[in-house]
Amino acid sequence: MDRRGFLQQSAGVVAGVAVSGALPSAIASAANAPGMASGVLVAPDAVLNQRYPFTLPPLPYAANAVEPAVDAQTMGIHHDRHHAAYVTNLNTALASQSALHQYTLGELLMGLRRWPAPVQTAIRNNGGGHANHALFWNLLAPGAASAAAPTGRLAEMITRDFESVAALKAAMKTAAVGQFGSGWAWLVKTATNRLAVRGLPNQDSPLLEGELPIVGIDVWEHAYYLKYQNRRADYVDALLARINWDVAGAQVG
Ligand SMILES: [Fe+2]
Prior knowledge:
Blueprint: H1 3-15, H2 25-32, H3 43-48, H4 72-94, H5 105-110, H6 117-139, H7 152-162, H8 165-178, E1 183-189, E2 195-201, E3 212-218, H9 225-228, H10 232-240, H11 245-252
Antiparallel strand pairs: 1-2, 1-3
The site of fe (ii) ion has 7 residues, from helix 4.
C-alpha cells in the first residue's frame, strides 16, 4: 500500500472506532490533502503497515555505512538494542490486547486516545519508537548514495515555507539542539499541507497529532553520545549533511 492508501485507510478505520476521544481532525485532512505521495512505497510505510506481532527490519545498510557522521558502534547498538527493545516492549504490552491486533502501527499511533488507557503509554513510547526509528534509518544516506539536495515537490514546499534549504536546516538544528532531554526534531507536513518544524519529547510521533513525519533527527543520547559526548550540535550538523533527500521527498510525494 502506498502512503496515500495507508493514510486514507487509517483515517477510515480509526474514525470508525466507537470510543471516546477526538480523532485529530488533521488525519482526515492530511489523507485528502493534495500532493500526497502516490505509488512510492518506502520502508517506513511498510513498518507503519505492520500489525501485531511487530518485527524489527534490518538496517538498510552496513553499520559503518554512515560514518563518520554515525560511527558503526553507535549504529549497531542503536538499531540492534534500542530499536529492538521498542519492538519487544510493544509486543509485550499488546500481547493481551487481542482487540488491538487488527490495527496497524500507523493506526495505533494516530488513534492513540481511543485505545484502553493502560496501553496508551506503551503504544506512544514503544510504538512511536518503532515507527520513528524505522524512518530514521532510511533517512540517513549511506556512502555515496547521499542525495545532495531536496528535489521535486519537497523542494517546492521548502522554498514556499522556509525560503531555502539552509533556513530549513537552521530551524531543524535549533529544534534539535533546543529539545530538552530526550526527543526528536521533526520536519512534518501539517493538515493544511504546509511544512513545519517540531520539537517533540521522548518517542512522540508526529502521527499522534495527525502530522506526517518527513525528516526526523533523533537527539536521544543513545544516538550520539559515544562519539560526540555532550556536543549535540556537532552531531546534528553531521546528520543534517547526510539526509537522504530522496527518501524525505518520498514522504511528501
Ligand atoms: Fe534512537
